[in-house]
Amino acid sequence: MNKPLKLIKIGNSTGVILPKDVLAHLNLAQGDEVSVVKQADGIALKSADPDFDQQMATARDVMDRYRNALRELAK
């Protein structure tokens, strides 16, 4: 799926207009949240996953608390 998308001004920001078929493919509706994922060949839009966001926050907390131990294990 390769479609040109239009950028529009929204206040001081810029928005993207997503066609209905793209929203259907992503299983999204107006007001839903999306994640922008950096990939080797560009970026991808994905449905936001609250469980993943919580897991990443927990992982960051653990990595911060055990930074020294993790550094030693990485040697």
UniProtKB/TrEMBL annotation:
Report the residue ranges that make up the SpoVT-AbrB domain in this protein. Answer: 8-53
Pfam families linked: MazE_antitoxin
Q: Which NCBIfam families match?
A: doc_partner (TIGR02609)
Kindly provide the name given to this protein in its UniProt entry. Answer: SpoVT-AbrB domain-containing protein
Organism for this UniProt entry: Blastomonas aquatica
